[in-house]
Amino acid sequence: MAIATVNDIASGLNSSQKQPYMKILTAPKAAGAYQSAWLAPGQPGAGNTPPVYTAGSGYTCDRTTAGAISYTNGAVQNWIAKMSGQSGVRGTIVLYDRLWSCSGIPFGGATTYTITTPGSLPARITDGGVGVEVWSEQFVAAGAASGTLTVTYVNSSSVGSRTGVSPAVVSAPVAGQLQQVPLQVGDVGISQITSTINSATWTSGSRGLTLMKRICEIPVSVIGGSNTFDWAQVLSKVPSDACLALYWLAETTTAPTVAGLIDIIDK
User: Fold this and answer.
1) Which one has a higher pLDDT value, 240 or 119?
2) How far apart are the C-alpha atoms of 259 and 105, rounded to whole Å?
3) Distance in angstroms (rounded) separating the CA atoms of residues 59 and 245
4) φ/ψ (deg, to 5) at 139
């Protein structure tokens, strides 16, 4: 049975999976920075640093991957029908499907690093990767930096040799920091990463790349406040075996603890 009326959603909420979350994040580098909760302790427990970019396998994530928010696949179709969030500081909690991730990419200047295998989406993504985003993710802190960061990829229409360029990388990113890499103009998604390059050499550290698809977000606009969005704001399909994870859009440099509840219905 699909969702046809509000009554379908209401009946689904009567028997929804209620999945709590609570993550203790490290301090963001700046207001306006994105901070990953993947390695943060809490509920669910911390995830693991993904394989290095030359590993050849183990990149894709699913609901059984350590660090993913737990839930059971629906008999028909899972939907996010309600979500709440709270924090002791202001910011925005973002729920996303973590699709693919690698680590250990050096910060050598003007060196092309080819992704082994290469970086393809899991089978649950059946639309070619429409809406999929690519982010640089810090699993360890890194040193001073300048220049640009480029990712070469295949877009959601299976066109290769596309390039996304982050025009100004963040110098000395902290562990957990995320930096989005904009896609080439006209592209609406990505299906595969093939390589990446930095225009300048960083002084230390390494970075990773993560493919994700955003599901919904919960703003926390009052210190110590909370917010709840119902189906009208968050109703979204959850593919079977999706790796549900969180990141934080910071408004301060204070380390946040974020918590809330996700209602998942099967319709």
Assistant:
1) 240
2) 32
3) 15
4) -90, -15
Name the maximum alpha-carbon separation found in the chain. Answer: 58
pLDDT on residue 1: 53
- The span from the CA of 34 to the CA of 17, in Å, is 28
* Closest C-alpha to 121, from 65, 64, 190: 190
Work out the burial of residue 224: count CB atoms within 10 Å of its CB; fewer than 13 is exposed, 13-18 middle, 19 or more buried: exposed
Residue 82 structure tokens = 């309600």
Share of the chain above pLDDT 70, in %: 100
pLDDT at res. 222? 85
Query: Kind and range of the H or E element at 42?
Result: strand 42-43
Summarize the confidence of residues 70-93 as an average pLDDT.
95
Mean pLDDT of the chain: 93
pLDDT at 54 (0 to 100):
93
Determine the pLDDT at residue 77.
94
Residue 61: how many other CB atoms lie within 10 Å: 27
Q: Cβ distance 86 to 258 under 8 Å?
A: yes
Type of residue at 95: L
Whether the bond between 44 and the residue before it is cis, its omega within 30 degrees of 0, is yes
Q: Is the per-residue pLDDT at 120 higher than 90?
A: no
**Contacts of 159 by beta carbon, 8 Å cutoff, 6+ apart:** none
Q: Which pTM was predicted?
A: 0.94
Short-list 158, 150, 103, CA closest to 129: 158
Burial class (CB in 10 A: 0-12, 13-18, 19+), 161: exposed
SS3 48: coil
- Mean pLDDT over residues 6-11, rounded? 79
* Beta-bridge mates of residue 94: 217, 247
Residue partners of 86: CB distance under 8 A and separation at least 6: 220, 224, 225, 226, 227, 258, 259, 260
Structure tokens at 97: 């499907």
Question: 198: closest CA among 92, 111, 124?
Answer: 111
